[in-house]
Write a structure and sequence with these properties.
CATH topology: Rossmann fold
Number of strands: 8
CATH architecture: 3-Layer(aba) Sandwich
Order of helices and strands: HEEEHEHEHEHHHHEHEHH
Largest sheet: 8 strands, mixed
Helix content: 40-55%
Strand content: 15-25%
Distance between the termini: 34 Å
CATH class: Alpha Beta
């Protein structure tokens, strides 16, 4: 599957294909109550702080297959399927980033995984992580933001693109969405309204944080070069408001860095875990 198309479009396309996959982590797991419905969770490894993986738009936990097993070798990991995705039940309330944050909090409370956490979020999962970190700052030991996105990117793109390019982009997205599940469609709608919530959650807690930024562009996809530039601008704003954040560019990846350059994600997690352990006075084995 190509990974050099529009950032939002790629999220949709990848998510549609991801639910047909069964990851090694999904072979065994635990279902926990998130408030009237069950979420599938997978806990592996041991050690503190625990690393919590939050997937992108419409994706199950298999998106972390190239990273999570290696992380479980040096600390405890927690991955899960959001409501309606993978092996989790549909939600009993409307999808929104606020609902996703509450859902993650409920799942962690019901699991055996205790704070502090290093939260690792990709794309829309990055927005969930940022809001969660703001809301539950005392639980956070560190953050790894993997090409994070929120609704401001879509708003800026719509305001800047020509009508012809916007319409062409929307036509491609509409075709992709024909094959999407109800939960994936709901997450796409939720992502469009996420900007104000993320913006209100900044600055982030003053904890070790790495921001991974994909850099590849696809001139053949309507609006993609501009979309990438706008994303870079939002990442610069994040850095300006959060001086503790270390940015790492992914020269051979655009959006799915955990797929295209998993070592960059793994090294970022190792870095943040080591800093968190050093700050807590615990000896780091890394």
């Amino acid at each position: 599957m190509a990974r050099t198309i529009g950032t939002w479009a790629l999220s949709v396309l990848w998510a549609i294909g991801s639910l047909s996959l069964v990851s090694a982590a999904q072979a065994a797991g635990t279902r926990v109550d998130a408030g009237g419905y069950q979420l599938f969770t997978s806990v592996n490894g041991s050690g503190n702080p625990a690393v919590v993986f939050v997937s992108g738009l419409g994706e199950d936990l298999s998106t972390w297959d190239k990273v999570a097993p290696d992380v479980a070798r040096f600390t405890q990991t927690f991955a899960y399927d959001r409501a309606g995705l993978g092996k989790s039940d549909p939600a009993t309330s409307k999808k929104s980033v606020d609902q996703m944050v509450s859902e993650l909090h409920a799942a962690l409370e019901k699991s055996a995984v205790k704070p502090p956490y290093v939260l690792v979020g990709h794309s829309l999962g990055g927005a969930v992580v940022e809001v969660y970190a703001h809301r539950y700052a005392s639980q956070i030991a560190g953050l790894v933001l993997v090409d994070p996105e929120d609704g401001r990117l879509l708003e800026q793109l719509h305001a800047t693109l020509s009508k012809a390019d916007w319409d062409a982009r929307q036509q491609m997205l509409d075709k992709m969405m024909d094959a999407a599940s109800p939960a994936q469609k709901a997450e796409l709608e939720a992502s469009k309204d996420s900007g104000k919530l993320v913006e209100a959650s900044l600055p982030l807690p003053a904890v070790p944080t790495v921001l991974l930024t994909g850099t590849l562009k696809d001139p053949g996809f309507p609006g993609n070069p501009l979309e990438q530039d706008l994303k870079m601008g939002l990442h610069k704003e994040l850095l300006a408001q959060n001086p503790q954040v270390k940015q790492v560019f992914a020269p051979n990846s655009r959006h799915y860095i955990q797929e295209d350059a998993p070592d960059l994600v793994l090294n970022a997690i190792k870095d943040v875990v080591a800093q968190a352990r050093k700050g807590s006075g615990k000896k780091s084995p890394l």
